[in-house]
Design a protein that fits this description.
Layout (H helix, E strand, L loop, with lengths): L1 H19 L4 E2 L22 H8 L9 E7 L4 H16 L3 E7 L4 H6 L7 E6 L4 E6 L4 H11 L1
Parallel strand pairs: 2-3
Antiparallel strand pairs: 1-5, 2-4, 4-5
InterPro entries: Thioredoxin-like_sf, Thioredoxin_CS, Thioredoxin_domain
Pfam families: Thioredoxin
């Protein structure tokens, strides 16, 4: 009986992860305000996202139209796939920059931005506000479609 319950729970969790990994969702609230759905106008998303990033990574640059901010770790296979996808997107979409952050070396930034796992991708708008985020490895088509709604 215990084995059956364990299998059912594992199957349920696996289906949940398969359904949610790599999907962009509304930005979560950080210290400054409520979440704002992707593409929402006039909201109060975290205006300090870029300020937090630039404080941790002084050489980083904000994209003219958007920034793909990826949090990765050294031994994360999905992080390598995400790096490739986001780099390709940044190469084909003008004004979009891909910035990768090593989560292990920037734990304060990870905590401030409420990153719970790697890879996590935040899409920042031209002003440096978080528009949306995805936990897990997103597909190229998903990133392009999400960007289309932001830029």
């Amino acid at each position: 009986m215990i084995a059956i319950v364990a299998v059912v729970l594992a199957l349920g969790f696996g289906l949940y992860r398969a359904r949610t990994d790599g999907r962009f969702r509304a930005s979560s609230s950080t210290a400054d305000g409520p979440a704002v759905p992707a593409g929402a106008e006039g909201g109060t998303s975290d205006a300090r996202t870029w300020d937090d990033v630039i404080a941790a990574l002084p050489d980083a640059r904000l994209g003219e139209r958007a920034t793909l901010l990826q949090f990765s770790s050294a031994f994360c296979a999905p992080c390598r796939a995400t790096r490739q996808v986001l780099s390709e997107v940044a190469d084909v979409v003008p004004g979009v920059v891909h910035l990768e952050v090593d989560a292990e070396h920037h734990l304060d930034l990870v905590r401030r931005l409420d990153v719970l796992r790697t890879p996590t991708t935040l899409i920042l708008d031209a002003s440096g506000r978080e528009a949306t985020r995805a936990a897990g490895a997103p597909r190229k088509e998903t990133v392009l479609a999400t960007l289309d709604g932001i830029v």
